[in-house]
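Give me C-alpha cells for this 176-residue protein.
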Amino acid sequence: MSALHAGDPAAFAVDVLDEGPAELEFVPGVASSRPTKTCAGGALIRDSAGRVLFVVPAYKTVLDIPGGMTEDNESPKAATIREIREELGLDVELGPLLVVDWTPRNGVWRDCHQFVFDGGVVNGAVAHDPELSGVAYLTLDEAKPKIYPSLHRRLTLAVAALESGSARYAEFGREV
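Here you go.
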C-alpha cells in the first residue's frame, strides 16, 4: 500500500475502485513482453552534525543508505518507510522527494529507478535488523571510498536538492 494511504486503507480502496475495472490487453501478450524494472527507495538521514546515516549490510561489502527494494504493488515511499522500520526500528515521517535516479543493469540486478527522500535528522540510530552489521554516520567525503561511486553522486545531488528545495533527476547518479 502506498505511503499516501498507509494511514487510511479505506481511501486507498476507494481510489482503486475509482480507476474502474482492470485494464485488459487489447493485444494478448503485449504486457508480458514488456521489460520489468526494479524500484528502490531510500532516505537521506542526517545527524545534528550534518553527517549522513549509512547502514552496514552484512550481505555486501559497501555501505548503503536506509531503504530498499519495493515489493509488488508498493510505492517507493512506502518501501522506504517499511525498510527504515525493519532496519533501524524507527518510524519516520519522510520529507520531500530529493532525487530520482535511474541505474543500469549490474550483474544479476536489473536496471532500477532509485528514489531518495528527505529522512530528516536522527541522532543515535542503531541497527535493528540481522541483515545489518551496524550503522555509521559519515560525511560524504568520508563515505566515498566505502560506497558505490553512483551512490556518492546520487547523495551529492540529494544534499544539493535539500539545500535548494528542488528535486533532481539523474541517470547513474549524474544529473541530466
